[in-house]
Amino acid sequence: MYCGGVVRTKDPAVRTLLIERAAQMLRARDPVTLRSLVAGTGVSTMAVYTYFGGMDGLWRAMRQEGFSRLATLLDGVPLSADPVRDLAALGAAYLSNALANPDLYRVMFDAGFELEDPAAADETLHSLVRAIDRAKDAGRFRAEVDAVSLATQTWTVGHGLVSLVATGPLPRPALGHGVTILTALFISCGDEPGRCRDSVEDGWQV
Amino acid sequence: MYCGGVVRTKDPAVRTLLIERAAQMLRARDPVTLRSLVAGTGVSTMAVYTYFGGMDGLWRAMRQEGFSRLATLLDGVPLSADPVRDLAALGAAYLSNALANPDLYRVMFDAGFELEDPAAADETLHSLVRAIDRAKDAGRFRAEVDAVSLATQTWTVGHGLVSLVATGPLPRPALGHGVTILTALFISCGDEPGRCRDSVEDGWQV
DNA sequence: CTTCATAACATAGCATTGCTATGTATTGTG
DNA sequence: CACAATACATAGCAATGCTATGTTATGAAG
Question: Could you tell me if A54 and A15 are in contact, meaning their C-beta atoms sit under 8 angstroms apart?
Fold first, then answer.
């Protein structure tokens, strides 16, 4: 029997080109439609189906890209000797990124779509988990604190804030509530109240 | 001079019929399109433009309806002698409602649209504010606690949780994080830790 | 009661959407 | 070289929201 051979290979550059262009159009608030996406790129509408299987696949890839960029950004946040400060700084970076690219952020959490790689969401938490582990090592948080749970809780607070501010009814100064909530949360993990407040306020630069 | 007269009045029943039907279709996961919405109702597509000015207006009305129903639901939550428990119960009711009608909830917080009545969002907070005031009266929270701020913070936590669970990557048991976060938050308002935890756990029936 | 301007409503059609069917070009393997 | 499998281009389809146009109903003015 003939097992067939790969004859013509997809060009990965086209894939990244389309993703890049879609991200650009999102930023510019231009509606990302099949035809407007490929217009001017030289590639035909079929390319979207060859590379993504359709518009749904494009959005899935965009979501993946968003999580990937977010993880990179969080990895690049400069750390200090104060892990609690760093934890707040990571939350602030998360918020800044989401507010700078609100449309991409919305796509990332749009309903009806699942991630290509479900682990990508967890990946986002790794930076937070590392900071929490450092806080435990430094004696700021109790040893019984579950790092993943606390990271998830921190994420929940950040996501709630950014959702209500970026596309919701809360004004931008409401971001300051993050300090209050996170401080309360970190104190409940064993941090000394006064010091915790200072650390969170120091890291929370939105 | 001729001042003109209103000749044919809009039928309010048609308006509520369309909103009701749209909500029904959302619940049934049927795509709500202009034609599918009016199909079988006897009204023509133009009705949507007469009553709402277009599909955008329909979504705006849906959002308003969602907030209205939410306020009614929160008003109906039975209260107890424990205001902190009630506060958690209100949060839990908020979550239950959102998870029971995830599509309507998503519409409520969709981007690009503003509310017809911006006060409707604040209205949702009134039940929370009342519970917080009762907690202050009962000596559970410090007098300096700003009720609206704390209500907003509670809302932020609830919204973050429900967003990540209903349409996001977190599994449903993650709702339990609400207990941890809210307990920490309420303790920071002056409540006694052990008692606070009991109250929140008692009220948090999701 | 008659008139008639105005609003409510129905119909048809437009541009655009995502998608698919069909045909053509390309390229590595046997 | 020959062929099969894939990438790519074109054209067209059903469905979308919306608008232009025509028709009907209604209540106030005379």
Answer: no
Q: Which CATH number applies to B64-203: 1.10.3230, 1.10.357, 1.20.1090, 1.10.10?
A: 1.10.357
| Whole-number pLDDT of residue B42 | 83
Helix residue ranges per DSSP H, chain B:
12-27, 34-38, 46-52, 55-75, 83-100, 102-108, 119-137, 147-166, 177-187, 193-203
Residues in B touching A112 (Cβ below 8 Å): 167
* One-letter amino acid of A199: S
Q: How far is the CA of A46 from the C1' of C24 (A)?
A: 14
What span, in angstroms and rounded, lies between the C-alpha atoms of A108 and B172? 19
Domain locations in chain B as residue ranges: 1-53, 64-203
pLDDT band at B7 (very low <50, low <70, confident <90, very high): low
A184 → closest Cβ in B110, B159, B185: B185
> What tokens does A93 get?
């970076």
- Is A149 at the interface with chain B, CB within 8 A? yes
- Chain A CB contacts of B155 under 8 Å are 164
| Band of pLDDT at residue A5, cut at 50, 70 and 90 | very low
Q: Read off the pLDDT of residues A84-102 as tens digits, 9 standing for 90 and up.
A: 999 999 999 999 999 999 9
| pLDDT number for residue B123 | 83
Nearest CB partner across the interface for A177, out of B109, B121, B149: B149
Percentage of chain B exceeding pLDDT 90: 81
Q: Which residues contact A187 (CB under 8 A, 6 or more apart)?
A: A193, A196, B184, B187, B188
* Three-state DSSP state, A3: coil
Per-residue pLDDT, A136: 98
